Amino acid sequence: GSTRPSAASSGPGPLFALLLLFGLRILPASPHPQCLDFKPPFKPQDTLVFCVMYTDFGCCDSRKDRELRAKFYEIMDNFDSQGYASCAGYVQELICQECSPYAAHLFDAEDPSTPLRSLPGLCPDYCSRFWLRCRSVITLLSNNTSLEGLEADKHRFCRYLELDDADYCYPHLLSNPQLTKDLGRVTANEEGCLHLCVEEVANGLRNPLAMVHANDGTHRFFVAEQVGLVWAYLPDRSRLEKPFLNITKTVLTSRWEGDERGFLGLTFHPYFKYNGKLYVYYSVKVGRQERIRISQFRISSSDMNVVDHNSERVILEIDEPASNHNGGQVLFADDGYLYIFTGDGGMAGDPFGKFGNSQNKSTLLGKVLRVDVDHNDRGPPYKIPSDNPFLREPGARPEVYAYGVRNMWRCSVDRGDPTTKEGKGRIFCGDVGQNKYEEVDIIESGKNYGWRAKEGFSCYDKKLCANSSLDDVLPIFAYPHKLGKSVTGGYVYRGCENPNLNGMYVFGDFMSGRMMALQENKVTNQWDDHEICMGQGLTCAFPGLINNYYQYIISFAEDEAGELYFMSTGVPSAASPSGVVYKLIDPSRRAPPTKCQYEPLPVKVKGNLIKFKPKESNPASTTPASRRSTPPLRRTTPGTPTPAFRRSTPSTITTAPAKSRKPTKARKGRRRKGKHRNGALRLAGQPEGKPDRGRVEIFVDGEWGTVCDDLWDLRSAGVACRQLGFGVALRAARRAEFGEGRRLRILLDDVQCQGSEAILLQCQHAGVGQHNCGHHEDAGVVCGNADSAKPSNSA
């Protein structure tokens, strides 16, 4: 079998006390529960009446339970009363192991190199007792002809049923605490980082920054690119060749990385199915003035997968004094009104006017706007809802619903708990910070969210912050810039497929690539936070799942069924087709097989379809076809901080020279030739008593220098750690976490390793001494031994 955790086996214990299920707890992420259909186990919707030991958690629903019961009676009809009394218990236990949460291990289904067993792997002591009492049932339980020849020999028979990994044999696995503790709960590493996996859904996109559904029963999803293209996808993930919307000639953006202008938002009217209306938010240039524009479009009367481009009606235009902080979210809340989230106008510190745009209710910048776009075919493009909070305040714009926001990037409406509807209608937003903090807010009518007086929980403008009339609302969560520098708001998970995630607000950071989750604590009335890591080892070893993603998290989304997605890219440029849409998956527990089924309404397709082909796969995954997938593409490990925007085009990548150049005249930081080999590494800036971590310094051509953290990922860190004598890299450190090596030159930048290199200098890089970074981006590592800890995908 495949490599599995080792734990001492002890005698069998009561199963019901071990198969605990509900609630979120932290445990080491080592076991790999898996069913015979290559998917995670689940809690059956109905109580099992035959395989009752797995009624709380396992791999069988009531239909499979009935099927196994019928098989049991068919076998036991061959026995008299004495044989029934002796063997019925064994037969039931063996048949019901198809329902075990570890069924794939028991039947060797998780290992493609071995045939599927007809009987589960048995522990020697149990097998011996079974053979002595009931060996006559072997041929009735299995049609494996190999077992017929072994039936008469206990030693050979039991050796045949042994598993390579004895920890998983039946029934000892039931009493193995490492395999049964908190079974079915979201797993986490020792730092509390939740282990999830992802599934690739779409790729080849240029800065995909919005994915929405039309709520029309078709379960199509629509992905918008920053350049002004929107693509329509069918439920099978095939894409229509013709764009759903193309306004690239009107949208204002550029190729340079970090340009915040462009096509920024898209939403469908709640009654799109009947009125065909949708709304977009994009940057535009009118004369010399840059503006943000919110427009209404209608669907084509002749093609349900194409917008009528002549139907555009401008709802609102707002002058932008600078090219950044453009906001970009549009959505319909539960009240049926259109919400528009604008930025503060750009530059730094909201320098406009006495108090800035955000605190000025007479301007539409730095606000949450709320308008009524129903029944607007005649007359003005929108009306003001009668309960807008500042409707009657002199000097205030009546569209304003909330103010004091800096640059809210991605907001969402909570669908509410699927059963109780608790939380339904809340609007969550990520508000991008200035110098110190990123924050998450819940938007409420008439509230002041503090900017520019406050940034997160701290004062930014001390004079404004001390104003007693500020009356601002604090965020539900804020994090410092050492963890990330540009929040990307997400969604409260309310889907069906991942029941453990219900109620978690999942969001990320564009710059650091971190993904996080907030969960409301009803006792403290606070929001508990967890980091999200990609599962290591076998955690994501399921068909179609992978455990890494491109680092720049641009946006989150949910489909019509409420499942959660996010979009990220490897190169944050509107010209780079490196954007991917991922679906988040909890590998520890799924919903019962038939619970989440739905039947999409048919879609009339005119034109060609492009079938989806994932570009990455997980080498640990197994498939029913018993094929191993190819190694993953090189990309930055999620969760590690990534560099700020600097370049419009990627640096030229070169490999390390075969021979070192002749050292030139000595300078500060150089060593005498011969004392160190070319490419030698050392760690600097280590915390006291922790020699396994520090800033990476490399010796090249007679001098020591530092490594820039551009493209620095766990794979490159792994090469460095192994070169230094450690087993693995636990983390790729960035942003001069272990101090700046200012006395040295920066010798390597854009380091990209395959993982098999003997030394770091053999990895691809921009050329010795060639860099486009500063010492505030010096790279580092946290190393460990392979057996002592698993590497985490979180910084």
What does this structure look like?
The chain has 795 residues and is α+β, with helices and mostly antiparallel strands. The protein has 3 domains: 52-181, no CATH class; 194-596, 6 Propeller (Neuraminidase), CATH 2.120.10; 680-784, Roll (Mac-2 Binding Protein). It is built from 11 helices and 35 strands. Strands 1, 21, 22, 23, 24, 25, 26, 27 and 28 form a 9-stranded mixed β-sheet that branches. Strands 30, 31, 32, 33, 34 and 35 form a 6-stranded mixed β-sheet that branches. A 4-stranded antiparallel β-sheet has the order 2-3-4-6, with no helix packed on it. The longest helix is centred in the N-terminal third of the chain and has 15 residues, at 62-76. The relative contact order is 0.10. Residues 1-29, 622-674 and 787-795 have low confidence and may be disordered.
Short description:
With 795 residues, the protein is of the alpha+beta class.
Number of domains: 3
The CATH architecture assignment of the largest domain turns out to be: 6 Propeller
CATH topology of the largest domain: Neuraminidase
The CATH class assignment of the largest domain is Mainly Beta
Discrete helix count: 11
Q: Which assembly state applies to the chains in this document? A: single chain
Overall number of strands: 35
Keywords:
35 strands, Neuraminidase, single chain, Mac-2 Binding Protein, disordered N terminus, nine-stranded mixed sheet, alpha+beta, 795 residues
Show the helix and strand layout:
Elements: H1 62-76, H2 81-95, H3 103-106, H4 124-134, H5 138-141, H6 145-150, H7 154-160, H8 177-180, E1 194-205, E2 208-212, E3 221-225, E4 229-233, E5 239-240, E6 245-246, E7 263-268, H9 272-275, E8 277-286, E9 289-299, E10 307-319, E11 329-332, E12 338-341, E13 367-371, E14 400-403, E15 408-413, E16 427-431, E17 437-443, E18 454-455, E19 458-459, H10 462-465, E20 477-480, E21 487-492, E22 505-509, E23 515-521, E24 526-534, E25 545-546, E26 552-558, E27 564-569, E28 579-585, E29 609-610, E30 681-684, E31 693-700, E32 703-707, H11 714-723, E33 728-733, E34 745-748, E35 780-784
Parallel strand pairs: 1-24, 32-34
Antiparallel strand pairs: 1-25, 1-28, 2-3, 3-4, 4-6, 5-29, 7-8, 8-9, 9-10, 11-12, 12-13, 13-14, 15-16, 16-17, 17-20, 18-19, 21-22, 22-23, 23-24, 26-27, 27-28, 30-31, 31-32, 31-35, 33-35
Helix pairs in contact: 1-2, 4-7
Region (Disordered): 609-692
Domain SRCR: 681-784
Disulfide bonds: 753-763
